[in-house]
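Tutorial, part two.
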Amino acid sequence: MDKNKILELLARKMAGEASQYELDELNELMSRFPDAVYYEEFLIQVWANSPVTGGAELDTEIAYQGHQAKYANEFRKTKLIGSLVFLFILSILTLVYFYHDNTTGPTIEIVAGKGIRKKVTLPDGTLIWLNANSKLSYPADLGKKSKRTVYLLGEAYFDVAHHHTQPFLVRTGKFSVKVLGTTFNVRAYPDEKRSEATLINGAIELSVHTRPKQKIMLNPSEKFALEAAQAPGFLGAGKKSDHSDLTLTIEHLKPMLIGRHQYIQELAWKDSILVFKDESLEELKPKLEGWYDVKLTVAETVPESYRFTGVLKNENIKEALIAMQLIKPFKFKLTANEVIIY
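Running the prediction step on this input gives:
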């Protein structure tokens, strides 16, 4: 990953000095390297003068570097621009190194590939179910820190071990969840417009990275949803920094009646059940790809008005598509790793 290039483009974007070409280049890099969302999270907090430690002030050198980045066009006219960008990036990396308590020591990564779901126990006793095409990372000495912070790309269900002196934080590329001990589900895939946090019991506090002063508390059986006007990048990369195109909603968790059974769609995946209701093929596409580890292509000949409702448990991809054909007529061609619907 070209870390320096991503950091440079992020800095120019936040300073409002990035050209459309640079924004397009940043979008491309962010889509190729989903882990880079953490760099943007750090930079957003630094730019808002709110370091990850909470309450610490930025020193004047870092502030000065931020000023240099903001007026990069003027500095570009001199031969110093290369050094200034380097110093700005170095300042950011130094801040992250000294203030972010998860960057020291070894880091554990757990990956659930497409078609795979995993259950893991963290060193502090927290149970986590990791959905397909997801990754969780955390420091090896998680239980010894003042804050138990984990990073999530994808979807996971958390049953957090209660430690009243050690808050548990889940950071995604779009928002963070803070708890002491509770059960909840987080869905935050980098390439999806909509991200969600669903609370089962206890209490959680949410904060959106682009709106750090706004705190949202959820009650049991409530769901928080964050939706961008267009697909990421990351939070509409290339947009203005106010992120006014983000929609935040809080909904009540409602069981879905399909056939004679009730399902909670947000949680059924934990029991290896894929539930969908009134969804188009485009909406189902990433879910089926992750669930069955296939590449799915929907031809333009398939009507966009097609909507599907169903429950998949032990069916393979062929059996699932045959069942869906009973709802709406279509044809499909199945190869080793690809499905074409036409």
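Confidence is low (pLDDT under 50) at residues 49-64, 74-84, 94-103, 233-243. In part three we will examine how such features are distributed along the chain.
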